[in-house]
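Memo to structure team: turn this sequence into structure tokens by end of day. - J.P.
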Amino acid sequence: MDIERQVQDLTERVAILEAALRTRASVAPHLAPPPPPPPLGAVPTGAPPPPFSSAPPGSPTGPPTGPQVSILSANPFEWGIESILRWAGVALVTLAGIFLVSTAVTRGWIGPELQLLGAALGGAILLGAAVRLADVRRPWALALGCGGSTVLIASALATHEWLDVVGPRSAIALAVLAVLCSVAVALHTRLEGIALVAGVVGMIAPFDTLDTFGDEAILSWVAAFVLGSSAIGLSYRWPGLRLITGWLGTFVLMVYALNEDAYGLLRAMGFVGTAVIGTTLWLAPTVAERLGTSTGSGNWGPFDWTPVDYRLVALVPAWVWLVLAGLISFAEDSHAGIIAVVVAGAFMGVAELTFSRVSRVVSLATLLGSFVLSAVGLAIYFDGPALMVALAGQAATSYFLSRKLDDLPILITSYLAGAASSMLAIVSLSEAIDRDGFITFGQGLATALVVLCWVGAALGVHHHRLQNVTFDVPFVGAWIGVMMWFAAALTGAPQGLMLISAAWTVMACAGLVVGLSQRFAVVKNVALGTLGLTLAKLVTVDLAEVDVFWRVGLFFAIGIGLITLGLKVPSLVAPEAAAEDMSDGGPTQESATTF
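Reply from structure team:
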């Protein structure tokens, strides 16, 4: 009976499964039937099944017949060998073309004209090979294009610079044609390196030929390359071309302006060119960010040019000042300091006016460069209190810039500038205390601004701090700075020692109230330290120096204030105790009776 019942149960289960399979088959009749089982003699190979193909029926499924992009070997050693051979071979071919040009100058084998023509044809062939290989082997196209651009520009300049085959105008025209051909190849192949070589070589090489036309031609030539490289770099997402060629050109202009005397038309061109180039360099990062080209890497792999771009913005004020210093002949060095302060102030105003229209990092970098330049200008003009203000501003702006860019060198720079400004402020405050007050109003204002920077730093650190601490360097520095400033400002007043003690007592009492009520441990600790220092001062210095009648009033007022504060301590601590009791499950009978 048991066996018959089990057989019947199995039969019913099989019937249910067959009904379910028939239902599924009727719902999805388009499913392909399962593949037949393998033959009995087949041996499994363990190979994975072929991947699913999404190609439409009838489409060719064989290997592609078109040109394929060369894939580098997975072995880095083999890739390194290929790279070394590639660049070594192209360098030798490039040198061969340059030697062909040089032998045309010294001793022509088949005539200088034919040798220059052969070298130019060789450069053109290298550029043509770069175009041909751009879709197949881009590293080879980059190397051949760089070599071809160098040879072609050298051949164009040799026509006049060494051989006098043609005039200087024709040589410059040929050089322009060579640069344009190289840039056209770079734009066609989308290879930034070719454009970079063409820009650098084409900008620097023709200086001797351009010298025959005067300084105006050299400045115009360099300015054209700076503006052109900036335009192409922004348009084609090539920040390397824009930054390297552009800033190299600005460096050339700066050196030229510092070493040459400018008069008349040349000086006017220098002023206009400085304004145009300075504006271009300052606006380029913002324009790149708006166009979405700020993070482009060109042919530089994963390298990100954005931090470099923003750092160079901080150099624009200094570059403008140096060029203006070279264009203007100063009778005294102090005039250069005045120009530096004026330029720094102008850039500060521009950063303030455009703060909401340009990138925030650009504004901070501009302020950083302006504060550095103002510090340099003030150091040149006079060694006064304004220098510490400039250093404090530099420290503040560089700190915010380092937080924005997550840049350690800029953060270290901010700490160094802040330390230098703080040391100058401490020395100035100490001298003011010894001399019974500030010598000038500017000294008091400058030290007050430095102390306010410390107060701002303390508030910023406290705002971003997630836990309560008992010691905080920015807050302690700000507190000590305020105490020293009150001491320096009040020591020269009538009964100054008494006023200093009163001011310190007010600070201590206010700090205790805030520290106890708001549960700020660091405020409470520095307030207690200030109170102890004030009491020690009362029974030592004030006891001997302050007049007896003033001393009676001072001691009485401070004593009454401390007694009142002591009576208020339970009410200040009560919210904290109540919160702790509630967190423990409610007030106990003992705590309810006590409070």
